[in-house]
Design goal:
13 helices; single chain; alpha/beta; 51% helix; 6-stranded parallel sheet; two-stranded parallel sheet
Length: 322
């Protein structure tokens, strides 16, 4: 079916630059281009950030490119907006799970479809190492959400692993898994955590969009270099990378898990947690860059414009020539 669709299409594209590259390797001979996905900024921006942007960048809803000028918003106001979003999420988590989340503790968010290649349990790959990180740099808490398909046994096993890890880490790292994941809950999560975790098995992530939703709320990503994050990642500026380049990753899955988990723990221990607790002003600057660089670009306004210019207009010329 894929070959049939490719053969009959006037324009073919992947949904991120890396996706286009991988697709050209899978289907040689076809002119496969790339148009990177985006999210609707106004929909995914938390109320506190909407008010902030309305004050400083009144045209941002009409044209999210104006978020580029978020670089001029005072850091104090960005943190105040984030604190409101984080409080809303914390209250929701405690109301739904009684997990005892603390609005002042460093909070990691992971929410997406629960399936094996997403590697949602990677952060629990070495519980002793995670305990060590928390003991040295805590407090730290992690919130999860996401549903597994009823027939996806590996996805359901991953959810069970998260619950088992939560019990094993009780009193050291606070963990919550939120039920009934939907769009409204996703909005709370993307805006209310301090960092957005993404740990797919590369190069399986065609694009991903949850990190884009976090970015419009000033939440940086801690992510595997795959999908859209290859384009949005500037180390220590818009977030942080886990592991290495995809080209380096021709190794068994278990070895890759070992390496990526070690990289994840090192970034938490050596970079993120010290920055958050000891150099807070710098952390807020990263949040501001996240909005200005990634929030202003990875949105549907830019995406649709590229489809019009690169795909639909080209297809229209073919149709007119017929």
């Amino acid at each position: 079916m894929t070959d049939l669709a490719l053969h009959g299409s006037q324009y073919i594209n992947g949904v991120a630059m890396k996706h286009g590259e991988v697709s050209r390797g899978m289907f040689p001979g076809y002119p496969i281009h790339s148009i990177t996905n985006g999210v609707h900024a106004a929909t995914w921006t938390a109320p506190a950030f909407q008010s902030l942007y309305d004050r400083h960048l009144p045209d941002w809803r009409r044209d999210p490119l104006f978020l580029r000028y978020a670089i001029s918003i005072p850091p104090k106001e960005i943190w105040e907006a984030h604190a409101q979003a984080k409080l809303s999420l914390t209250e929701y988590i405690n109301r739904e799970t009684n997990a005892g989340f603390d609005k002042d503790a460093f909070t990691i968010g992971f929410a997406r479809r629960a399936t094996a290649y997403k590697r949602g349990s990677l952060v629990f790959h070495n519980l002793d190492r995670l305990r060590e990180v928390a003991a040295q740099h805590g407090p730290m808490q992690i919130v999860f959400a996401g549903k597994a398909h009823p027939q996806d046994q590996e996805g359901k096993e991953m959810v069970r692993q998260v619950h088992q890890a939560a019990e094993a880490l009780h009193g050291v790292v606070t963990v919550a898994y939120l039920a009934n994941y939907d769009m409204e809950l996703a909005k709370l999560l993307c805006a209310g955590v301090d960092v957005w975790l993404n740990s797919p098995l590369p190069p399986m992530e065609a694009s991903g969009t949850s990190g884009m939703k976090a970015a419009v709320n000033g939440v940086p990503s801690l992510s595997i270099l795959d999908g859209w994050w290859i384009e949005g990642h500037v180390e220590g500026v818009t977030g942080w990378a886990i592991g290495g380049e995809i080209e380096e990753q021709n190794m068994p899955a278990r070895d890759l898990d070992d390496r990526d988990a070690a990289s994840l723990y090192a970034k938490l221990a050596d970079v993120l947690l010290p920055c958050f607790s000891q150099n807070h002003q710098r952390y807020v600057e990263i949040m501001r860059y996240c909005i200005a660089m990634n929030g202003s670009f990875f949105n549907t306004h830019r995406m649709l414009g590229q489809y019009i210019v690169n795909a639909y207009r080209l297809s229209g010329r073919f149709l007119q020539s017929d």
